[in-house]
C-alpha cells in the first residue's frame, strides 16, 4: 500500500513529504505496522529516525517494542520540539505512542512533511473512557493517510476498537499492558464490568 519513493538528487525537483497516521485501540497492531513500514524504508536505503515519548519505558528504555516482541531502535524524547532538531537529516520519521506528546506535535509533523519528509505516527485514537486521545484528532485531520487497525475483543472475540481499563484509576495516563487493559468491542466496552457473563 505504501510505496517507498525513489531517491531524487537534492535540489532537483525535491519530492513532497506527507503524514501517515496509524491508529486504533491497544493490542490492535499499531506498533507492528509502524515497525513494518519503517523496516521497508530501511530496505529501500532511506535514512530513518524513530522517536517515542520518554515516559513510555514499559518494555525498553530506547527500543520500540510491540506486544508480540518485534522491536526497532528509537530515541526517547521529552518534548515534541526535540524531534524537529533531531530529525533534520532523515528522510523518514517514525513516532510511536504519539498521543502522549504535547499539542505542538501537530505542527512538528506538519513542518517535517512540509520540508519533504515522510512522517509515520502511531497512537491510540481513544483513551480508556472512549474519548479522542490528545493530539490524535488533529493529526488525523492533517494526515494524507490514516489507517485504523483493530484488535480482538477479549470478552467475545468480535472486532475491538476500545481499550477497556481493568483498574479503578481515573488518571488519563496510566501505563500498562494486559495487567491493566483489555481490547473490547463496542458492546463489551459499554457493558463494563457486566460484560463478564459474555466471556467465551
Ligand atoms: N486482544 C488482542 N487482539 C489482537 N492482538 C492481540 C491481542 N492481545 C494481544 N495481542 C498481540 O498484540 C500484537 C499487536 O501488538 P502491538 O503492535 O504492540 O499493538 P499496539 O501497538 O496496537 O498496542 C498482536 O500481533 C498480538 O500478538
Ligand atoms: C487506553 C489508555 C492507555 N494508556 C497507556 C497504556 C499503554 O501504556 C499505552 C498504550 O500502548 P499501546 O502500544 O497502544 O498498547 O497507553 C493510557 O495511559 N491511558 C489510556 O486511556
Ligand atoms: Zn465484545
UniProtKB/TrEMBL annotation:
EC top class named in words: transferase
Keyword Isomerase: no
First and last residue of the signal peptide: none
Entry GO CC: cytosol
EC number assigned by the record: 2.7.1.21
Keyword line: ATP-binding, Cytoplasm, DNA synthesis, Kinase, Metal-binding, Nucleotide-binding, Transferase, Zinc
Top-level taxonomic group: Bacteria
GO molecular function terms listed in the Swiss-Prot or TrEMBL record: ATP binding; thymidine kinase activity; zinc ion binding
Entry-linked Pfam families: TK (PF00265)
Binding site for Zn(2+): 153, 156, 185, 188
BP term (GO), one: DNA biosynthetic process
Residues reported in the UniProt entry to bind substrate: 173-176, 181
Assembly description: Homotetramer.
NCBIfam families hit by this protein: PRK04296.1-1
Name of the protein: Thymidine kinase
Source organism of this protein record: Dyadobacter flavalbus
